[in-house]
Design goal:
Largest sheet: 5 strands, parallel
Radius of gyration: 20 Å
Strand content: 15-25%
Order of helices and strands: EHEHEEEHEHEHEHEHEHEHEH
Strand order of the largest sheet: 2-1-3-6-7
Number of strands: 12
Structural class: alpha/beta
Distance between the termini: 43 Å
Low-confidence stretches: none
Oligomer: single chain
Number of helices: 10
Length: 261
């Protein structure tokens, strides 16, 4: 498994390789954004650790570039890598910016020796607490859908995408598979998130299906509209990974319990 360390500090590189001894990684190194892109053009990487501040740019922009790689880009094979940011400043604001760029995880630099190995093992081999769950993500933004999929990677195994509410209705009305949760954006053309929720609540098989609406607004009237539509919960964007996973876990556990009953 190929592992790329993107950091200008020789000490960080040394600590990472010594900490992960025995994990059968092929280590490669880059000190800048440009060197990272060169390495990713030569071979695919499954794991990348990255500093936020690089000599020729910031790590968030680099992460965003990797996540948005097209089939024509020489570095496309690393676009789905696990990307862990190593930082000395782990704040909510930093995490929001990082997850918006497509980060998989954050770790304080002074916790590398004690926590990096465990974090990687959990990302590579997570406890499948949502085994068998099927999620439908509805959002007209490709980037938003990509971010959510990255945050849920390997935790929720079955994810379907719809780029608007109308398409989501078509998918759900086909009823070829059953879904356990819907994550939908609030503002979308043709059919908004609350409108989608209202229509689904009129269908017998979706009366109790967990629906979480994502919104970039803090307006109280929007929040009221969300709950009037029949949604179970909402999240304000940008959100952080832990918050999203916690909400999903709460509603999925309740849903699976209800199905058992």
């Amino acid at each position: 498994m190929n592992f790329l360390v993107v950091d200008s500090s020789p000490m960080i590189k040394s600590i990472i390789t010594s900490t992960l001894t025995g994990m059968n990684f092929n280590f490669f190194f880059a000190s800048s954004r440009g060197e990272c892109m060169q390495e990713c053009s030569k071979r695919p990487f499954q794991i990348i650790t990255m500093a936020i501040h690089l000599a020729d740019g910031d790590g968030f922009a680099l992460c965003h570039q990797l996540r948005h790689a097209s089939k024509e880009d020489s570095f496309q094979s690393s676009s789905d890598a696990i990307i862990i940011f190593l930082t000395a400043d782990d704040t909510i604001e930093v995490r929001e910016q990082g997850f918006a760029a497509g980060a998989s995880e954050f770790l304080l630099k002074n916790h590398i020796r004690s926590q990096l190995k465990d974090r990687i093992e959990r990302l590579l081999y997570p406890k499948n607490i949502f085994k068998g769950a099927r999620l439908l993500i509805v959002d007209d933004s490709f980037m938003n859908r990509l971010i959510i999929k990255q945050l849920l990677r390997k935790i929720v195994p079955n994810i379907t995408e719809a780029d608007n509410g109308k398409q989501a209705l078509e998918i759900l009305q086909e009823n070829k598979v059953s879904y356990d949760m819907i994550l939908t954006d609030f503002y979308m053309p043709e059919v908004t998130g609350p409108e989608l929720c209202q229509r689904l609540r009129k269908m017998h098989r979706y009366v109790n299906l967990p629906i979480i609406i994502l919104t970039g607004s803090n307006d109280r009237s929007d929040v009221l509209e969300i709950f009037k539509s029949g949604a179970n919960d909402f999240l304000t964007k940008p959100f952080i990974k832990e918050e999203l996973l916690a909400r999903i876990e709460i509603h999925l556990k309740a849903w699976f319990l209800q199905k058992q009953v």
